Amino acid sequence: MSSELITITNPKSPIAEAYRTLRTNIQFSNVDEDLKVICVTSSGPSEGKTTTSCNLAETFAQSGKRVLLIDGDLRKPRVHKVFKISGTKGLTNLLAGQLSLEEVTSYVGSDLTVIPCGPIPPNPSELIASNRMKELIANLRQQYDVVIIDAPPVGVVTDSAILSTIVDGTLLVVASGKTEIDGAKRAKQLLENVNARILGVVMTMIPVTKKGYYGYQYYSYEEEAQPTRKKRSFFSKV
Known about the structure:
Layout: H1 6-9, H2 14-27, E1 37-42, H3 49-62, E2 67-71, H4 79-83, H5 91-95, H6 101-104, E3 106-108, E4 112-115, H7 124-128, H8 131-143, E5 146-150, H9 159-163, E6 169-175, H10 181-193, E7 198-204, H11 214-225
Helix pairs in contact: 2-3
């Protein structure tokens, strides 16, 4: 497993706990209806959206949910690299009618199901907007408790804006000290333009020495010292 999968490689770390907090926040963001299909995007590249998608999917799987992670970035896919699985076949083969669902899925981590991108197509936006994609999402809703789609940056291409119209909610990832405020505002506006349901913003790349992580360090110590003590949740950022 890649070191990016901190929920597996270091499950007691402050960052792993932050992902579990994110999972909880999503679960309780709307108690009246299930959020089954979630799109994860960012304003620009290299802001941590794939790392967030993979770890969030893993935390849902650890809670006993039937979880599917789809690499919906048909331009620069990375999910298969994070999990160190083959990316030669995947979503694009499925949408093209070349392979079945069973032929493109892999099983990793805590019984997490993953569909890699597959061969990079010449027409990513057209595939994402196709009826086949809509039918696939409708079918997967019936088979899984949670479906997470790692999408390309919404501020760069239109794919994420399209995806956000066929999912239950979208998470916007921004990087501390990297994402420009104007870029984040523009990404939010692009999602709002298509009436996307924005679940919230996930801030990544926060130095662990900053205020807010001391509580996690204390929590980790208490957990080791008193394993039978009831766990407490802290709100934080990834």
